[in-house]
Amino acid sequence: MYNHRSTKQRRAILELFNRQEKHLAAEEVHQLVRFQLPKISLGTVYRNLEALSEQGDLQKTVFPDGKARFEGAKHEHHHHMVCLGCSNIVDISLCPVRPEMKDLLNAEEFEAVYHRFEVFGYCRDCREKKNRN
Amino acid sequence: MYNHRSTKQRRAILELFNRQEKHLAAEEVHQLVRFQLPKISLGTVYRNLEALSEQGDLQKTVFPDGKARFEGAKHEHHHHMVCLGCSNIVDISLCPVRPEMKDLLNAEEFEAVYHRFEVFGYCRDCREKKNRN
DNA sequence: ATCATTGCAAATCTTTTGCACACCA
DNA sequence: TGGTGTGCAAAAGATTTGCAATGAT
Hints:
- 2 copies of one chain form a homodimer.
- The first copy, chain A, has helices spanning 8-19, 26-34, 42-54, 100-107, 124-132, and strands at 24-25, 58-62, 68-72, 79-83, 89-92, 111-122.
- The first copy, chain A, is α+β, with helices and mostly antiparallel strands.
- In chain A, the strands form 2 sheets. Chain A has a 3-stranded antiparallel beta sheet. Chain A has a 3-stranded mixed beta sheet with strand order 5-4-6.
- In chain A, a hairpin with a 5-residue loop joins strand 4 and strand 5 (89-92).
- Chain A is flat, with a radius of gyration of 18 Å.
- In chain A, 20% of the residues are buried.
- At the A-B interface, helix 4 and strand 6 of A face helix 4 and strand 6 of B.
- Chain A binds a DNA duplex through residues 2-3, 5-7, 9-10, 25-27, 39-44, 46-48, 51, 66-68.
């Protein structure tokens, strides 16, 4: 489908993720990359986010708000801690999966390809704000 | 927000989930409940799915395709096994979270409210189909 | 020169919302 | 009766796509 051709748009988007370590939604990527390429279209951003994810340069995750967010794929296997207050997303390096899970999947004859784990709650800052009220 | 009023539409939707144990998207619920209430609108379905989730009668999950799906909330805490072939979703009763995860969250001073875990891969049937090709 | 990629706009898909009317408590 | 719920249609938000022009190899 996508044949890794290097365009200034694609490079600019990828560089953005090399500088930022945050999770970014397509619209945010568009805003940020516009500083460098004012004429880049949102459609192009979507196509490149998809292409870069396909070739493993980005990692795409769909969150409960139904919006996809992307992050640089430089990291190891990891999971997410999502703040219900400020919507900030922090990576978790510890994978919580106990070995029994493999047995269960084997028993079901389910061939696992990947998994995801996300904890939702309140980060330190939002916790304090909550308690002040 | 929603004050648990009992209408025939709301009852019909809830009954649907008592008969079916599958995960259903809003559009599917609409199609199915129409057999019983032909004039029910999609908007009403959405509003009731939301209301029923709020009051704990249904459980809503947003999947990587960006679509929300619902299931009856009769079950205990559980997770999901999602087939990449047939899109079927099966519940996993085993929660994989190791105790170390709690320590990590404490260290981060993150107050966990809930978490989710999903394994994506191929169910027995789709595995066979794959291997035949 | 070829074919992927772009910009733009229109289209799609899921979900939400405004409004007048209907119906539950 | 009063306020929540409904149907309908329009709106909103995220993402995809058709097309002619552009640009990378």
